[in-house]
Amino acid sequence: MGHHLDALVDAAATGDGISLDGFTVSRSDDGFRLETPESTLNGLTEGGLREALADYDDYATNWYFWSEVVGESSPQRRAFLRWVEGASVDAGGDDGGDADDTENDGDAPSVPERYDDLRDGVCREWGQLLVTVTVDDHGERSYELRHADEVDADRDELDPYRESLAARQLATYDEKGRYRPLKTGNNLAGGWVFPDLDAHDLVETVETFYPASVPNWYRERRGELDVAHWADAIGRQTGMYSVVKTWNRGDGHEHVNWVAEACCDDSQCVKRREWQYDDDTDLDVDGGDGAFPCREPCSVVIAASRKWTRLEGEETQTYEFELTPSEKEQVEDIIEAVADDRTDAIREADVYEGANRYRARFLRAKLFDDEGNLGGVPTDASDDE
Amino acid sequence: MQALVIVAHGSHLNPDSSAPTYDHADTVREVGAFDEVRTGFWKEEPSIREVLRTVEADEVYVVPLFISEGYFTEQVIPRELRLEGWDVADWDSDGLSASHVTLSATDVPEKTIHYCGPVGTHAAMTDVLVRRAETVTGDPNVGEGFGLAVVGHGTERNENSAKAIEYHADRIREMDRFDEVQALYMDEEPEVDDVTDYFESEDVVVVPLFIADGFHTQEDIPEDMGLTDDYRTGYDVPTEVDGHRIWYAGAVGTEGLMADVVLERAADAGADIGNTLEVVRERTRKTPQEAN
After folding, report:
1. How far from the centroid of its chain's Cα atoms is residue A5's Cα?
2. Which of A45, A73, A262, B78 could be disulfide-bonded to B86 (CB atoms 3.0-4.6 Å)?
3. Which of A183, A215, A303 is facing B45, going by the closest CB pair?
4. What pLDDT shows up at residue B183?
């Protein structure tokens, strides 16, 4: 292992030298100058520099990794990788320090502290993903990716994958084999592990599970996230979705609160909702704690809202039928169980659960007429013949 | 650096909708024609709105995996990509001839976006229809003794849709390879329901000009043609109907050679794709090669 030293000495001898994470090496007429937060060495020959660097190998491999392996070609990839291992996100970056990452910069650990952590493994959650980065004796990073719920699972018990694009298939179906229409839905199946990804492939894999999550997170850190609020997003819809515009009737935003509570809650989607009703009006429901932002109503929200726009155009009616108190509660239980996707968890013979299948069948047998009308009451008055 | 971005419809309900998009993206990726290959969807993720920010390259070729020019290629995709100064007149198209325009996008102002016409209207699509007939019959020389039907929606929602069907049917007819070639439609005359009325040939290959398999290609068309009473029970290929053997191919968009059309679209717009077209044409072939 010496190629990182060759690259470092070459770079240090060029122009202003190198500077990263408190580590500076430059050359002047007096020779090389090496500076770390702990010490400064002056007037080193090239041989002297190489010798001195042996005592600062963490700094040297850290510089090599960020300068030569990761590089600057994709600032968002670089920023994400630095965030993953707890490094200050903009150090060595090219964005002039205008980013909003003071919370991170202030308590970023020194390189030796960070390397101590990295040798044990540093974990970060990203939605339902868990990234663990470790560093070996040569300063090379290895990234493991698995389901966050399987943090304690033995790696050998998980199916191993090496190719980033394998994530596409893993993201397509939930635990029960159902199609996942929303990549960031809070229903990612587990049972898999990417045991050893390099930096580039880690980001590719993460982006395959959660497309555009890294660029949106990066833009947000820089204060440049282009949030499109509800009013903007539905305003630009055309064709079959243009009808959603008619749902806003100038009488408040309660309907959008309901949409957000239904679709965007942390229990449903791992993105943190940053869009509001409009520029001046925040929604009353919480946007969640997701690691990365949601910048506008997604296509699932728009498609569902088209249906709700039509449904909510109906006038209420008074229906008259009788329920026992327990039957009313049972109707509530069933709605709760469906809304929380809990029906599969209710045991077949657990007749104490209102949403139990036998309980529901009993209710249907008792209360529905042959046309499926609750309480024998037709839905439309005109059907009452 | 140059990137290819394939944009497609996708679905909230059916994973088969995006499957061909991923397959063709993988084919292009494997031949190394581009530094990056990305996909974006109207109904899946990344959304078309956000796909450009996932790209690192500064020259970006956007190819819509759509059958015809119309609402999606002219309104939805340019709007969602935030193409600056987009004007459909710049395509100067008769409904079949959109090739590409070069614009910038406000989402990624530092990049150059080459926005291409849909795959379905490219001349190379004709070859994919023929290749689909080869694949479904297992015969690389299929033609003699066979009729070929190209099936589309019809004009109900978009007149350009029927234009694309006619265009490819005419081109296949001019090849003089199949005994008969006929354009058929789902919602207008000549209707796919009556397929056997339109052919004298005993063997008829039926290829829907659709991007992905879904409700229309897997349920409607097989039932309408009488291949099965219930699509859930499946059907044989070929199936005998009214004295004809119907070789039903399913959506042409699932044919591997579609990757060739994607590449051609990007190349027409100026992408440097080297010799990858030839590689793709060979790699995606599923029928045995001719001896000579």
Report:
1. 37
2. B78
3. A183
4. 97
Is B6 in contact with B65 (CB distance < 8 Å)? yes
Q: What is the pLDDT of residues A128-174, one digit of tens each?
A: 999 999 999 999 999 999 999 999 999 999 999 999 999 999 999 99
d(CA B225, CA B213): 16
Contacts of residue B54 in chain A, CB cutoff 8 Å?
Answer: 207, 211-212, 215
Q: Give me the interface pTM, i.e. the ipTM.
A: 0.94
| A339-373 pLDDT, tens digit each | 999 999 999 999 999 999 999 999 999 999 999 99
DSSP string, A15-84: TT-EEETTEEEEEETTEEEEE-SS-EEEEE-HHHHHHHHGGGHHHHHHHHIIIIII-SS-HHHHHHHHHH
- What domains does chain A contain, in order, with CATH numbers? 3-63 (no CATH), 73-220 (3.30.1360.190), 226-311 (3.30.70.2320), 325-383 (no CATH)
Portion 72-131 of B in contact with A at CB < 8 A: 75-76, 79, 107
Q: Any idea where the domains of chain B sit in the sequence?
A: 2-121+255-283, 125-253
Searching chain A, which residue's CA lies closest to the CA of residue B22? Answer: A168
Q: Does B19 touch chain A (CB under 8 A)?
A: no
Q: List the beta strands (DSSP E) in B65-111.
A: 100-103
Distance CA A2, CA A57 (A): 11
Structure confidence by residue, pLDDT tens digits, A161-215: 999 999 999 999 999 999 999 999 999 999 999 999 999 999 999 999 999 999 9
Domain B125-253: state its class.
alpha beta
Q: Alpha helix locations (H) across B63-158?
A: 71, 77-81, 124-137
Cα–Cα distances in Å, from B136 out to B142, B205, B290? 10, 8, 17
Q: What is the gyration radius of the CA atoms in chain A, in angstroms? A: 28
CATH number of B2-121+255-283: 3.40.50.1400
Residue B156 has pLDDT above 80, yes or no: no
Give the mutation candidate from A205, A207, A299, A300 for the B interface (greatest B CB count, under 10 A): A299
Contacts of A182 in chain B (CB under 8 A): 45
Percent of chain A whose predicted confidence (pLDDT) is above 90: 91
Mean pLDDT score, B179-201? 95
CA distance, residue B261 to nearest chain A CA (Å): 23
Measured in angstroms, the CA of B252 and the nearest CA of chain A are apart by 23
Interface of A with B (CB under 8 A): 73-74, 77, 165, 168, 172-173, 179, 181-184, 207, 211-212, 215-216, 219, 226, 236, 238-239, 295-296, 298-300, 303
